[in-house]
Amino acid sequence: MTQSAIYLDHNAASPLLPEARAAMVDVLELVGNPSSVHAHGRALREVVETARGEVAKLAGATAKQVVFTGSATEAITQAIVGGSRELKADAILVSGGEHSAVLKAAEATGLPVRIVGLTGEGVIDLDQVQSEMDRAEESGETLLVCVHWVNNETGVVQPMGRINAMVGASRHLLFVDAVQAFGKLPLEFATSAPDMMAVSAHKIGGAAGAGALLVKGHADTVRLIPGGGQEQGRRGGTEPVAVIAGFGAAAKAFSSRYGSNVVAGLAREIEAGLKALAPDVVIFGAGAERIGNTINFAVPGLQNAVAMMGLDLAGVSVSSGSACSSGKVGASHVLKAMGIDAALAGCALRVSLGWNSTKEDVAAFLEEFETVLTRHRSRQGRAA
Ligand code: PLP
Fold first, then answer.
1. Which CATH architecture has domain 6-14+259-383?
2. Reported pTM
3. Distance of CA 71 to CAs 136, 216, 221, 242, 372, Å?
4. What rounded mean pLDDT belongs to the chain?
5. Distance 134 CA to ligand 1 centre (A)
6. What is the rounded distance in angstroms from the CA atom of residue 284 to the CA atom of residue 171?
7. Exposure string for 152-166, b = 16+ CB within 10 A, e = fewer
8. Contact at 8 Å (CB) between 155 and 294?
């Protein structure tokens, strides 16, 4: 099967790193179950523990704090549904900009869910977080505060230092969805405030099918899947050793493969190119700190479904930032939480770069986007 030539959707899934592929292929040749005590089992156990060490290192965690899961969504659900139950939270506090995995897990707890807003630039409203914490203090409630570190749609980096200080100084619990920050920012899990964090393999060049929940302190008990006692009783089920090996290899190789300055430079070229093509382009979150690889933009009047289709036909894969599992382009709840009007949000496109993005990708994207834009303008001209 062949795929489009230009792939600019790394926030959805980053291409497999060669190191991850090699590690996975090696493991596929092995037989055994890592829980078996014989030599075959021990060989696979060693693979899992080596990978755990690499994931821990990239996350600034200890190996014991890493629980392998099947995805970040599973890790998030373990943290929020399992965590709120085992740590006896009374309510969940989430931001309106969370990934649906977090919002749905919060709902699934059956506890009251309080939603704090985002500023117009996509930053979590910290005054609102503080006032919800003060309110909970008065009523004696324990909150599980759930925030993301980097927004998958806009690339906005949340003020994690301030969030850590605020929640860390309280008796409330803190869960951080670090999926889009992992490998790009230092997580320092072991020495920072969050009780739990979630990360995912396929955002750093591993394969989909592995994620990890980072847990520490009293959160160490969190478990949704008791099963056969794997992962120190924290997540049952035979470990998918090949994908875990790929996750470990990706974690080890990611820093040398992903040049954040190079990626940020390419993203700046895209922004400059877009501004030259369409002076009325709106870049969402432009006034906030953003991770270097993500540009979420809209040219007013150019519907994202139309633009994406034009780009797709030309072999360029980008995203609306909110494609739901049905493959339809849906309205973005993140842009809505930022107060962006629905008509403009319907024009939002997300370009996300990664470890193998090149200047040629940028040039091809801009060329094809210009074609889409020219077609759109001539259609508009005919309609006028
Ligand atoms: N959280 C964020 C911020 C994400 O971007 C994603 C995936 O897009 C997820 C959670 C879910 O990750 P996974 O696909 O590993 O379940």
1. Alpha-Beta Complex (3.90)
2. 0.96
3. 32, 19, 19, 14, 35
4. 94
5. 30
6. 34
7. bbbbbbbbbeebbeb
8. yes
